[in-house]
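*** Protein under study ***
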Amino acid sequence: MGHKVHPRAQRLQVIDSWDSRWFSPFSQYRIWLQEEIKIRTYLGKKFKEAGIDRIIIERSPREMIINMRVAKPGIIIGRGGQGADEVRVYLERRMVKSGTKVRLNVQEVKNASLSAAVVLTQVTADLEKRIAFRRVMKQTMAKVMKAGAQGVKIAMAGRLNGAEIARREKLALGKIPLQTLRSDVDYAQGYAHTIYGSIGVKVWIYRGPVFVRKDLAE
């Protein structure tokens, strides 16, 4: 049996922290959790082109703070901040219970090529444009390594290039130390919906060792 663990989950409280940072009374837990799932789904679909890295949600009984880290913040903020205000009002009226104030903070990712989630979005978009999968993998890995990564690995599974028989392909550059807890390994997985069916994509990016928990250092 394999012992496969999500790279970020394994490093929680060592070099990383949770994306959901709140506590609730027992009676409110189910309601808050449902609200958060709806918000993450809505933001992920609406601003897919913005290149979302992480959505961190903090909340208290009367307030919800949503911190979005994206590659293209202009898509969300809009002209004069009008876009962000519209999203905030929509969330307050439709997604959370009445009386809860929503604050939306949009932050730009310093180096989008070192974010596994952003790279995953670019890879799936290229596959849906019917670009050859091996070309996409090689170009993406070269771009990530040029941005300063110490290692990158991309895996794909499905009817690659429209082949009749589904298969798995994997390419890697550099090193990916998955068992070292202080190694900053970013991971993301998703699907590319092509005319031949869905292709599963996984991305690992090793950004080097970390000796202080990232959220505390920030």
